[in-house]
């Protein structure tokens, strides 16, 4: 029972990580320091998709499922609804490359906005009345 709960919790964490990789840049729009956590996650996500690398969470999840006496993802809410999102049927290397490109494109766009806001903020601070300008 404990191993099944651990495996289910790991699937939820895995899904959370995937959501963070894809959409975590939006957090950086509000909190630029989040980029220090998000950019390495994006790099891993793109690498894993582009090279068909198995995430280290997957073998751990499978180990816990085996220890729980399970063969796969039969039964249960987590297995039925979340696993197909993380491990879709028909996932091909070409589709994985497209997903990696999508993640890269989304994050280039978001971080372009973050960089533009930062530049705009610096220009505004320099041109503000009372601000120390160039000498």
Folded structure, characterized:
This protein is mostly helical. The chain has one domain. The protein is 75% helix and 0% strand. Helix 1 (2-23) crosses helix 3. The relative contact order is 0.15.
When the domains are counted, the total is 1
- Profile the largest sheet: none
Count of DSSP strands:
0
Task: Estimate the global geometry from the Cα principal axes.
Answer: elongated
Mean residue pLDDT: 82
Helix content: over 70%
Number of helices: 6
Along the chain, the helix and strand elements come as: HHHHHH
Q: Which residue ranges are poorly predicted, with pLDDT under 50 across at least 5 consecutive positions?
A: none
Strand content: under 5%
Q: How far apart, in Å, are the first and last alpha carbons? A: 70 Å
Structural class: mainly alpha
Query: How large, in whole angstroms, is the Cα Rg?
Result: 20 Å
Provide tags for this entry.
135 residues; mainly alpha; 6 helices; elongated
Summarize the structure in short.
With 135 residues, the protein is an all-alpha fold.
SSE topology sketch:
Elements: H1 2-23, H2 25-30, H3 35-51, H4 57-67, H5 77-86, H6 93-127
């Amino acid at each position: 029972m404990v191993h099944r709960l651990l495996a289910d919790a790991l699937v939820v964490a895995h899904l959370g990580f995937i959501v963070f990789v894809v959409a975590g840049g939006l957090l950086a729009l509000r909190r630029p320091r989040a980029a220090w956590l998000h950019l390495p996650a994006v790099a891993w996500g793109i690498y894993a998709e582009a090279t068909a690398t198995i995430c280290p969470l997957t073998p751990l999840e499978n180990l816990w499922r085996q220890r729980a006496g399970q063969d796969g993802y039969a039964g249960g809410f987590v297995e039925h609804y979340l696993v197909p999102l993380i491990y879709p049927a028909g996932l091909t290397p070409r589709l994985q490359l497209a997903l990696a490109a999508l993640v890269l494109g989304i994050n280039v766009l978001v971080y372009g906005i973050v960089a533009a806001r930062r530049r705009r903020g610096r220009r505004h601070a320099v041109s503000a009345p009372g601000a120390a300008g160039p000498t």
